[in-house]
Specification:
By secondary structure, this protein is an all-alpha fold. The protein contains 20 helices and no strands. It starts with a helix and ends with a helix. The protein binds beta-D-glucopyranose. The site of beta-D-glucopyranose (BGC) has 14 residues, from helix 5, helix 12, helix 17 and helix 18. Beta-D-glucopyranose binds next to helix 5, helix 12, helix 17 and helix 18.
């Protein structure tokens, strides 16, 4: 009896530590979301404080993606040379600096430079966080921890939508409202900074650097028994020995290129199904159909956040591929429905004459679409990219795939609205539907199932 009570106590203890590690790590995801979601409900205040037209506002919004690409590009070097933990600390510093300086309402050039910096921080965090979580969490809960990262992104998007709407409502003067909006980001940035200072380093990185003793110490905090620790050490060591030699050699391998293409295309599709059009522009799109107000502002971030919760459970129960299929089918159907709704609504004109049915179809389609993305492609694209690369090529692989994600996010955000104006509003939704079909074909033929196996076993499997 005594022994089993002791064991269950150990298990509970173990879990708290693991979840704490993951929670602090995932604060990187929260900052990602805060910056991603910031624009939607802050743009009005920014435009009036800085007297911007549409183009200036777009320039300000879009520079985040540029920072994201550069951040992702350099984060592989940070991850390798600074380590995962110090890179998270570094990202925390950037977030804090960029948001605090912005809160002083500096000149527009400096404000844009700060948004670039925030994008840079997001690029670093969106690379390091899943990497850290996938290397530190035990195999059985790895997927769930990866989903936690996505959950934090969506909580960030929701939180900033909510606080920005609230702040703009309470403080009518944008010179007061805008600094407060930035300070919300600064608050969480400081939290992340402090949290990541006390995180342990990733055991896999420590082993890669030949610091076995330290790695064992970290693993002892994560696992319950010495046997589990030994097993994990052996597995990491085995893979390290097998992949001895230069990273260059590892990545010049044919098998690495195949995996790289899988990751790149997966991240490309995550953006080409159109998610960020909804995240950034859903109030605008609902506005085209004559819908404004709180539902137009809050429906997307709320549904996006709520339906990321089931993903945490489903990603281990159903596996990655099934979620990708189901999500893509839901997005396909809803994008076609949204396209048809816009056929009925038309390209502008007298909105008062638009009947209620197409408006309702549009609203429901967008909400169900967000649901479809939130429990599948949102988390799974990031999880799979953090799992498929061999240890030696993991930083390079994830750097490239993260950059691809940001590049396509930037392209979609930059051209979506003008595409709608040029080719008709329905056309954009049909285009996204077509990408959903392509993504299903791609998953069926190329994406491996990565559920429940250790990173090292997966590496063996992929090599074969
Ligand atoms: C995507 C982001 C998107 C977010 C929405 C993430 O997985 O990479 O581009 O804004 O999901 O929740």
């Amino acid at each position: 009896m005594k022994t089993s009570a002791f064991n269950s106590h150990q298990t509970a203890n173990y879990k708290v530590i693991v979840y704490f590690i993951c929670l602090v790590g995932a604060l990187g995801g929260l900052l990602f979301g805060l910056d991603q979601g910031f624009i939607a409900n802050a743009l009005g205040s920014i435009k009036s404080v800085y007297e911007l037209g549409t183009e200036g506002a777009e320039k300000y919004s879009a520079i985040l993606a540029a920072g994201g690409v550069i951040g992702a590009l350099l984060s592989g070097f940070f991850a390798r040379f600074l380590g995962r933990k110090k890179s998270l600390v570094f990202a925390g510093c950037i977030f804090a600096f960029g948001s605090i300086v912005s809160a002083f309402l500096p000149s527009f050039i400096i404000l844009r430079a700060c948004r670039f910096l925030l994008g840079f921080g997001v690029g670093v965090a969106s690379f390091i966080t899943p990497l850290y979580l996938s290397e530190t969490a035990p195999a059985a809960i790895r997927g769930a921890m990866g989903s936690l990262f996505q959950l934090m992104i969506t909580i960030g998007i929701f939180l900033i939508a909510l606080t920005n709407v609230y702040i703009a409502h309470v403080f009518v003067n944008p010179h007061i409202a805008l600094p407060l909006m930035f300070l919300v980001i600064a608050f969480f940035a400081i939290l992340m900074l402090l949290g990541s200072l006390i995180l342990p380093e990733s055991p896999r990185w420590l082993m890669l650097k030949g610091r076995k003793e330290q790695a064992v110490r970290v693993l002892k905090r994560i696992f319950n028994t010495q046997t589990e620790v030994d097993l994990e050490v052996n597995e990491i060591q085995k893979v390290l020995e097998e992949s001895k030699g230069h990273t260059f050699k590892a990545v010049m391998h044919k098998h690495f290129f195949k995996i790289l293409i899988i990751g790149v295309v997966l991240q490309m599709f995550q953006q080409l199904v159109g998610i960020n059009v909804m995240i950034y522009y859903s109030p605008t799109i609902f506005g085209y159909a004559g819908m404004t107000g709180l539902i137009a502002m809050m429906a997307v971030p709320t549904v996006n956040m709520l339906f990321t919760f089931p993903a945490i459970y489903l990603v281990e129960k159903w596996g990655r591929k099934k979620l990708l299929y189901v999500g893509a089918v839901i997005m396909l159907i809803t994008m076609v429905a949204a396209g048809l709704a816009f056929h009925a609504i038309g390209q502008g004109g007298v909105l008062a004459s638009v009947s209620q049915l197409p408006k309702t179809v549009l609203l429901v389609a967008v909400i169900v679409y967000i649901f479809g993305f939130a429990f599948s492609w949102g988390p799974v694209a990031w999880i799979v990219c953090s799992e498929i690369f061999p240890l030696k090529g993991r930083e390079i692989g994830m750097t490239i795939t993260t950059m691809v994600n940001w590049t396509f996010a930037g392209l979609v955000m930059r051209y979506a609205l003008s595409f709608m104006e040029t080719f008709g509003r329905s056309s954009l939704f049909y285009l996204f539907a077509a990408f959903c079909i392509l993504s299903i074909i791609f998953v069926a033929f190329f994406v491996p199932e990565t559920r429940g196996i250790t990173l090292e076993d997966l590496e063996e499997k992929l090599k074969r």
